[in-house]
Amino acid sequence: MIRNIHRQDGAVSTELAVLTPLLIGFMLLVVFAGRVVQAEGDVANAAQEAARAASLTASPRAAEEAAVATVSANLAAGTISCQQLEVTVDTTTFTAGGRVAVTVTCDAGFSDLVLLAVPGTRTFTATAVEVIDTYRADSRVTP
Predict the structure, then answer these.
(1) Which of 29, 101, 107, 118 keeps 20 to 30 A from 91, CA to CA?
(2) According to the CATH classification, is domain 11-131 in 3.30.1240?
(3) For residues 22-46, b (16+ Cβ closer than 10 Å) or e, as one string?
(4) What's this model's pTM, rounded to 2 decimal places?
């Protein structure tokens, strides 16, 4: 009686050699997706904080300065590095009970993810609006 024995020596190592690059690629894509979500959150948070800071100032000029400083500080503390940053402050209704809007546009590159070879940059934009307190004190009025 002759038996036909199929040997499977090395089958596991072959499977591992085939699956390892796929698993690494999948993990890198997860890291990239996480970085994109984090960048979107950082830009949205910076816009919200900037709008709040701008709404607490006494003049439109001070609102613009506060917004730009707040965006810069927030993005510097985060994980995103903007290659080009634009902060637009809308103070057309900057009065008690009015509104101030801040739009942040950040062009971020992901070149630090070398293994993924992500080309170019991606633009993240967020807008936040804050209401200016109706009962705030007017600094121009002296008692």
Answers:
(1) 107
(2) no
(3) eeeeeebeeeeeebbeebbebbbbb
(4) 0.78
